[in-house]
TrEMBL record:
Species name: Salinimicrobium gaetbulicola
Protein name (database record): SnoaL-like domain-containing protein
Transmembrane segments: 13-30
Alphabetical UniProt keywords: Membrane, Transmembrane, Transmembrane helix
C-alpha cells in the first residue's frame, strides 16, 4: 500500500466521522425543538386550568393565532361540548383537563387528546367531554389550532 492510499483512507475516514457527527447533532437539535414545541402546548393547558387565567392569557401565549377566526366543527353541540373557541369566548369556567396525551405527529405538530370538565357561567352542573386538539408550531410559536 502506498502513502497516497493511506492518506486517502485517512481522509475518507475523517469525512465519515464528520458526517456521523453532523447527523447526530442534527437529530439532537430536531428532538430538542420537538420538546420545546411539546412544552409550549403543555403550558397552554396548565394556564387554562389555573384559576384566574382566561382567554387573554392564552392569546398572549399564541400570538400567531387569530382566535376570532377559529371555529369548531359545525356538528358540535355548543351546550354540551366544551370547545376551545367557546373557552376563548369565555363561555366556560373552572376548566379541568384529565387524561392528557401529547403526541408529536411531526416535528411541528402536536396532537392532544383527553377529557375536559367545566361549567357554563349560568349553570352549576359540570359537563365533561372528550377532545382532540391539533396544534401547529413554527419557530417555537403556535401558529394554528384545529379541533
Amino acid at each position: 500500500m502506498s502513502l497516497n492510499e493511506n492518506g486517502e483512507e485517512m481522509g475518507n475516514f475523517r469525512i465519515y466521522i464528520v458526517l456521523i457527527l453532523l447527523v447526530l447533532i442534527t437529530t439532537s437539535a430536531l428532538k430538542a425543538q420537538e420538546n420545546v414545541n411539546r412544552e409550549m402546548v403543555e403550558r397552554l393547558y396548565q394556564v387554562l386550568q389555573t384559576r384566574g387565567n382566561g382567554p387573554n392569557d392564552i392569546v398572549a401565549l399564541t400570538p400567531g393565532i387569530n382566535w376570532k377566526e377559529v371555529e369548531s366543527s359545525a356538528d358540535v353541540d355548543h351546550r354540551n361540548t366544551i370547545s376551545f373557541p367557546a373557552v376563548m369566548k369565555n363561555r366556560w369556567r373552572s376548566l379541568e383537563f384529565r387524561d392528557l396525551d401529547f403526541k408529536e405527529v411531526t416535528e411541528n405538530e402536536i396532537l392532544v387528546t383527553g377529557t375536559v370538565s367545566a361549567r357554563q357561567h349560568s349553570e352549576c352542573e359540570f359537563i365533561t367531554s372528550k377532545f382532540r386538539h391539533s396544534w401547529s408550531l413554527r419557530d417555537g410559536e403556535i401558529v394554528q389550532f384545529l379541533e
